[in-house]
Amino acid sequence: MRSVQEGSEGPKLDEIDRRIVLVTQGGLPLVADPWGAVADELGISADELLRRVRAMLETGAIRRIGAVPNHYAIGYTANGMSVWDIADARIDAVGEFVGALDFVTHCYRRPRRLPEWPYNLFAMVHGRSRDAVRQQIDDIARLIDQQFPGACRGRDVLFSSAILKKTGLRIGG
Amino acid sequence: MTSAGGHDEIDRALINALQGDFPLSRSPFADVARRVGIPQAQVLERIRRMLDTRVLTRFGPMFQIERMGGAFCLAAMEVPEARFDAVTEAVNAFAEVAHNYRREHALNMWFVLATERPEGIAEAAARIEEATGLSVFLFPKEREYFVEMKLEA
Question: Chain A: residue nearest B66 by CA?
């Protein structure tokens, strides 16, 4: 098992990388040459910026570059966090299986918080209606029972009813 | 056709084009414009409008703080309904809170903490407990089975 807070998986950022994060974490400038504009702001060449951004993509420090849609606005009004109590001996096999299903967008093993919280597998399911999400979660339950009889001891789904904040990562200046 | 969110087919094509790899070039929006088949000026204007109307929550690099020496952690609280708005305000005021969702469960507030150092998670949780008087349950990920966040618009 990993430590409680994971981290320190990758190289620390150097000072210029850190400033790249600071300047772009709120978003890229909406101009014809955004990378040139960011490079000017940092006082480095555009070539150096692009080389560093490419390296950060390779190490995974940048997951991807692009638009983050508001799920609600693009019609995915239902977002169900399905949570599962899976026998410890089977959890990784079940997790890999559930994570590979194409309507599951995130899938993690997390600690239980007994007695309040018996669930150790979290799988996020997005859909255009709550019924669609419930149907998909029923399908997951059926598939788990077929593949791993007896491994699932309970489940629940938590629908989100409001986005209270969504700013993404912010590091301090 | 315009949807309830106030965006049309071209917006949808643009959102889908922008969920892939944004070009690392000196004219990335021109490349996107060619892909979608509209002028560059319209690409920029549509992105700006979708950010203003919150069809898009952001546009740019998505950083993975764990690969930079930092940490992410899912957290949840059981917030009394009568205090929900005040607690939301108090929690959202923390820069470490990257996302926050209301969910229908006894644990009705679920947020993600993102900190530059792994030990920052427990510190932020303790300060949120102090600010709200409520317990914060931490759900660090022990293993990631899959992550993909591309939804077709």
Answer: A7
Q: CB–CB of A56 and B61 under 8 A?
A: yes
Residue B46 belongs to domain with CATH number = 1.10.10
Q: Find the CB nearest B103 among A34, A160, A172.
A: A160
Average pLDDT, chain A: 87
B49 exposure class (CB count in 10 Å sphere: 0-12, 13-18, 19+): middle
Q: Given B24, B40, B95, which is nearest A50 (Cβ)?
A: B24
The residue range of the domain holding B43 is 9-52
The 10s digit of each residue's pLDDT in A8-66 is: 445 567 889 989 998 998 899 999 999 999 999 999 999 999 999 999 999 888 988 99
Note whether B69 and A10 are within 8 A (CB): yes
Smallest Cα distance from B59 to chain A, Å = 4
Cβ–Cβ below 8 Å for B103 and A172: no
The verdict on B97 and B124 lying in the same domain is: yes
Q: Is B44 found in the same domain as B70?
A: no
What's the structural domain count of chain B? 2
| CB-CB contact of A108 with A122 (8 Å) | yes
Q: Which CATH class is domain A78-159?
A: alpha beta
- Nearest Cα of chain B lies from the Cα of A150 at a distance, in angstroms, of 21
CA atoms in the 13 A half-sphere facing the CB of B124: 28
Per-domain boundaries in chain A: 15-59, 78-159
- Cross-chain Cβ contact A74/B21 below 8 Å: no
